[in-house]
Design a protein that fits this description.
With 333 residues, the protein is of the alpha+beta class. It has two domains: 57 residues, no CATH class; 258 residues, Oxidoreductase, molybdopterin-binding domain (Sulfite Oxidase, Chain A, domain 2), CATH 3.90.420. It contains eleven helices and 13 strands. Strands 1, 4, 5, 8, 9, 10, 12 and 13 form an eight-stranded mixed sheet that branches. A hairpin with a 5-residue loop joins β2 and β3. α3 crosses α4. The N terminus is likely disordered. The protein binds ligand MTE and molybdenum atom. The ligand Nc1nc2c(c(=O)[nH]1)N[C@H]1C(S)=C(S)[C@@H](COP(=O)(O)O)O[C@H]1N2 binds next to loops.
């Protein structure tokens, strides 16, 4: 019941199966179905109805007055398009540590311990440092920035994030001139994130950017959305948002940042290198081996209005196009 309802949220035409090899996907599906259907959730769902259950299982979804973040408007708000609803932004998620179905993070991520929380900075820096989350929140005024969000699976959203440019933190880290790449590592505790084995990903979730990409003002160190702290399923208490790249570059629940001289290993590239490159720039002219990237489906829009043409760099060419001048984007996909 729960599964049916959440899959119907977006009139899903694009199954999760497209991001992983079919056989493996069938295996995840069996595992997660078994987990859901034999659990207390299934029993309670029948008795109370799916909406009530979603609330009960994901206390992190409830908005409390004390979790509001004070923000200033940002000149870097880059789209005037209609926002995706808070309900869709928080109930259609990829966060594989909490399950491979898009409805699972909202149900399962409530147990993520978001305090105390630190980010450890190491590698090619003047001196390693550890930043507490509450220090990070005060490092720079928080801005509200509305970005387009395009997943490699061809769905998209428009989300009002809260944060500040990652470059503000990077400056505090004092990277050495030899640092050419930055790696981001997500929180990983197999006892908390009990769904970790459902996918073929090697944990912890790892992502990376070239230094100039990390320093681009659009790259957002993100603490909230819709004026509130991040719900756990969206990567609380701190994540990255890199709007010109496919969603998977934006690592959630970051606990470590490393400055490196060479390209770090990244989770999806590691899993299927011919499907997911290191750069992962949104590019309608470079097809995924199993599907075209020319179109996308805007979550939450009326069915007839869902289909959209995907824009080069997700529409952020003016801001980031020059980072790739002279590069063959079919080779560096
Ligand atoms: N740690 C971690 N970060 C992650 C993921 C994940 O599974 N684990 N999924 C990625 C993918 S594929 C996408 S599309 C975005 C989804 O973010 P959202 O659910 O907040 O929209 O998070 C990215 N960051
Ligand atoms: Mo994604």
């Amino acid at each position: 019941m729960l599964i049916r309802k959440h899959n119907l949220l977006d009139g899903s035409a694009i199954p999760t199966s497209e991001i992983t090899p079919q056989a493996k996907y069938e295996q995840y599906k069996r595992l997660s179905r078994r987990g859901l259907l034999t659990g207390a959730g299934a029993v309670a769902a029948t008795a109370l109805g799916a909406d009530r259950i979603a609330d009960l299982l994901a206390p992190s979804n409830r908005v409390h007055a004390s979790t509001k973040l004070e923000t200033v408007k940002s000149p870097l708000t880059t789209t005037g398009e209609q926002l995706t609803t808070l309900q869709d932004v928080t109930h259609y998620n990829n966060f594989y540590e909490f399950g491979v179905d898009k409805s699972q993070p909202a149900q399962n991520a409530g147990t993520l311990p978001t305090r105390p929380w630190t980010i450890k900075v190491s590698g090619l820096v003047k001196a390693p440092k550890t930043f507490d989350i509450d220090t990070l929140l005060k490092l720079h005024p928080l801005e509200e920035r509305v970005y387009r969000h395009r997943c490699v699976e061809r769905w998209s959203m428009v989300i009002p994030w809260v944060g500040y440019s990652l470059s503000e933190l990077t400056k505090q880290c004092e990277p050495l001139a030899t640092a050419k790449y930055v790696q981001f590592l997500s929180y990983f505790d197999p006892k908390v994130e009990k769904w970790w084995s459902e996918s073929g990903i090697r944990w912890p979730y790892s992502e990376g950017l070239r230094m100039d990409e990390a320093m681009n003002p659009l790259t957002l160190l993100t603490f909230g959305l819709y004026g509130d702290i991040l719900p756990n399923q969206n990567g609380a208490p701190v994540r990255l948002t890199v709007p010109w790249k496919y969603g998977y570059k934006s690592a959630k629940s970051i606990v470590a940042i490393k400055f490196l001289s060479s390209q770090p290993p990244t989770s999806w590239n590691d899993q299927a290198p011919d499907e997911y490159g290191f750069y992962s720039n949104v590019n309608p002219n470079h097809d995924h081996p199993r599907w075209s990237q020319k179109y996308e489906r805007r979550i939450g829009q009326a069915f007839y209005a869902q289909q959209r043409t995907t824009l080069m760099f997700n529409g952020y060419t003016d801001q980031v196009g020059s980072l790739y001048s002279g590069m063959d984007l079919n080779r560096y996909y």
